[in-house]
Amino acid sequence: MRITNVLLVLAVAMVIACAGVVVVDDGDAVKERYGIVGAMEEEVVTLVNNMERDNVEIIAGTEYHDGKLCGKDVVVVRSGYGKVNAAMHTQTLIDRFHVTAVINTGVAGTLTADVGIGDIVVSTDTVQHDFELVEIGFPAGVVPEVGRVNIPADPALITKAVEGIKAASPDTNVFQGRVCTGDQFISGAEEMEPIIEQYGGLCCEMEGGAVAQVCYLNGLPFVVIRAISDEVNGDGPADYDQFMAEMASLCANMTMNMLRAM
Fold first, then answer.
1. Is 246 an active-site residue?
2. How large is the average pLDDT for residues 10-39?
3. Domain span at residue 159?
4. Which residues of 134-150 are buried (b: 16+ CB within 10 A; e: fewer)?
5. Catalytic residue among 43, 66, 125, 207
6. Residue 234: what pLDDT?
7. Distance between CA atoms of 198 and 213, rounded to whole angstroms?
8. Choosing from 42, 205, 207, 230, which is the catalytic residue?
9. Number of separate domains in the chain
10. Could you tell me if residue 22 is inside a domain?
11. How confident is the model at residue 53 (pLDDT cuts 50, 70, 90)?
């Protein structure tokens, strides 16, 4: 009987101890922490240089900069080009660093004459313009696991992005609208017109839709912020070479303005 009682006490103690650990873990998980994803070094260097860094962790050959930026807890990562890289590192931000929201920052090409080089686009939603399973019965653009074409950005993050940018840089043109994502550099009308016809949108780039899908499936809020570096009119590569670094830095600064407003 005594052995049974001792075992019972030990079992209860273990349950309490485990419960205590769960409470601590849950507390860490809900702490406000922003993951910031940029594809290129030029898109994250301004952010990293302004951080109070607590730690740099290397995962899959990529540096994750963990610290504070504009008074907020953040983890900044340079994902590399394209949807696979963006998705992989966004999921790592969620699983390893327990971020509570994701901001995707960088440059993009405009899809409309109303939005020009140096303007800022804050996403209302994203689509993947190169994803299509029409031949096997799905509507154009629908990702089966998501069940829809577009993924809406978080309204609160949209508001904070626009407010922060306008407050700090009132002369900057800020547009809200759809961001189109695909694994191609779109540089001419022949490539651009099918995207506009099918999806509309203000700009096109290579990562935002993937970040959005990962966040959507994990139930996390996100927003995409893009500075326009090139016009999709045949001069895209030349524009990109001339303006990319400047616009990447501009977008990073606009992202910091958003953080200051939060």
1. no
2. 55
3. 33-260
4. eeeeeeebbbeeeeebb
5. 43
6. 57
7. 19
8. 230
9. 1
10. no
11. confident
- Of 101, 117, 107, 92, the residue nearest 36 (C-alpha): 101
Q: Is residue 24 part of a domain?
A: no
Give residue-wise pLDDT tens across range 123-153. Answer: 999 999 998 898 898 988 899 999 999 999 9
User: Considering the chain, what is the average pLDDT of its residues?
Assistant: 86
Which tokens is 85 given?
């890289």
Helix (H/G/I), strand (E/B), else coil: 225: strand
If you average pLDDT over residues 177-200, what whole number do you get?
88
User: How far, in Å, CA of 188 to CA of 141, rounded?
Assistant: 21
Beta bridge partners of 227: 107, 120
Residues 26, 20: Cα–Cα separation, whole Å: 10
Amino acid at 60: A
Give the Cα separation of 148 and 141 in Å (integer).
8
Dist CA 105 CA 35 (whole Å): 11
Res. 25: pLDDT tops 70: no
Query: Which domain CATH number covers 79?
Result: 3.40.50.1580
In the block, tokens 């050959």 appear at 61
Residue type at position 256: M
Q: How confident is the model at residue 236 (pLDDT cuts 50, 70, 90)?
A: low
The answer to whether the beta carbons of residues 125 and 152 sit under 8 Å apart is yes
Please give the Cα distance from 82 to 90 (Å, whole number).
Answer: 12
